[in-house]
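Recall that a protein's primary structure is simply its ordered list of amino acids. Everything else, from secondary elements to tertiary packing, is in principle encoded there. The following example makes that idea concrete.
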Amino acid sequence: MAKKSSGLRQAFAAFWALVADACLVAATARTPGSGSSFCLSVWLFALLRCCVALSVIFLVNLGELPAAPARFLALHSALPAVLESLAAALGLGHPPCGASMAAGVSRCWIMCAGASLAAASLWEVGVPDSPSGRRKKRQKPRVLFMRVLRVYRPDLALLIGGFCFLTLAAVCEIQIRYYTGKVIDNLREDFEPDDYLSALLLMFVFSVGSAVGTGSRGGLLMWAINSFKCRMKAKLFRAQTNQETAFFDTVKTGELTSLLSKDIPMMAETVCLNINVLLRTLIQTVYTLVLMVNLSWMLTCLVLLEVPVMGLIQTISNKKQQRLTQATNDAMTAANETANEIISAVRTVRSFNGEKHEARRYDERLMDTHRIKSRRDTVRLISLLAQRLTGLAVHVLMLWYGRLFIQRGQMTTGNLVSFILYQSDIGHNIRTLTYVSANMLNSVGAAGKVFEVLDRRPRIRTDGKLAPESLAGHVIFRHLNFAYPAHPDVAVLQDFSLELPAGQTTALVGASGEGKSTCAALLKRLYEPQDGEILLDRAELGSYDGRYLSEKIAVVSQEPVLFRGSVRHNIAYGLEDCSLDAVQEAARQANAHDFISRLEKGYDTEVGEGGGLLSKSERQRVAIARALVRRPRVVILDEVTSSLDEPSEREVLQGLLRNPERSVLLITHRLKRPETMDQIAVIGDGGIRERGTHRQLMDQKGIYYKMAGGGRDDQKQT
């Protein structure tokens, strides 16, 4: 109710501001001057009108200056000065469109008011302000638009060049219509060869200018678009990869890839394509209106009646299309995620004969997208049909009155032909402006999603500076409480405390889902605990430099990820200067050198996508070598020995245990060689339930004793 009352008050204030402006124009109507003094007086008068109108609306609206009426009144005050200055610069005389003309003041005032209202309405439809009820985090479309412009700063020279050629092409295209009418007028009985040839020559010159301007504009702007895409994709990809792991738990992969593949190109179109079309259309529209008024101001007013009707139709269409476009994007993202999920798990799908089921599931996602697109296209079709019918009705009326004006001697046939060409351009321009306004709204929405990721700061602090030359590898988990951000109500660790002595091997055992892998993730700083702290050599983990920490703490998971490339590339992954000798030494420690040497190209052998050309145990050993090549002080093996045969497991563990300066955390649900562990910790209910050596825990006959199978170990040893 308050919003409706505010709108009525603003409309009432705008009405009285228009009344005051009309009185001012009527009271000061005068004959125009000449030269620079004329241009100066026109703009000073426009400034006076703007100040008076804004003052009236400020007072009537109780000390507030609403943005929409202020834009309309400012444009309405400045438009006559713009038209007269443009006409004077082009040598077209003084069009009856300014308050400086004693004759035709009322009709020109009405025409400028209509044009200003149409332009202001298009602005409100195309780039509306966000309602006050929306979230504060979401930026206004105009703010986003200005941010996109600032990102284009490195391409400023290309944009300026493109817009200059755009102006050249727009002016030349309009002049071609004008001289077409001149050619037709020269085909009458009193034929003038010189005038005819002059008109033809000028048509040719302007045609060449239009072709050069259009081609140069397209080339420069496409160059700017490609530069923008490359720069923004690289920037966004860095921002995405710098986020903490919890960010990827809550945001779908399809949404992130969609930002790179779809939303950034839409951002690029916001300036280079949409603004290109918008400026070209505005220049053509203003210039065409000046020429149309010179030919017949009455027919011009008739043509302008099309503007508010078109604006109303497009406003209704834009609201529906915006909602359906967002629904279409969501449906396409869901379809892409389904396809990615199926393709990534194609082995499992084929193993369980699920091809038909998955094909049907993907087809359902495509049909959802198709239905929404059909509804959006139906709205667009109805809107286009209504606009075309409106344009046709105005065109028929224009032809009817044009015939009457020719019969009365108020127009020539050539002038009517030129006017018809101008009218078709105006109708096309109005449709273009309404379409571009809707497209700009979608583009700005895409920019908002991109900037949300760019503005997001990782939740895990990465500004640590500590990087000591020597590190013992003494780790302490102290009173940790942790729950994954995707499931904040499910506590994984509760008052968890554990000490990993430097140079010793600790086995963390327990049932699946008890939080063993979570400890590895916290130690690697993939997540941050809600309470408690993790100390490395008595210093908090967050105080260390991130790059230093990634070298000193290495993790090998149960399902290691290998990247497309050679074996050597995967072992030396992330290291800029890593010699072949260092790679081979790490491979020997991981018991991987022998099988790598037997490969066709040795360390230069391609592993395939995801390491698919290697067996699971071979991938495990390459992953272990990738961890060891960094010479870490803390090594975390998360269920890695489950894929190794007993000889390989024994050799890998012996290689790790031979180094007394290396702390090893072995995470497993069942130990194969417990006697090699310096200490064993049993995790359960989010905390450490038992801790000690294998013999100590077996003597306690507690949880570990049951996990080890009762007293079978004692029987074997006796």
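Residues 590 and 625 are 5 Å apart (CA to CA). Strands lie at 475-482, 493-500, 505-509, 531-536, 539-540, 553-556, 634-638, 663-668, 679-684, 687-692.
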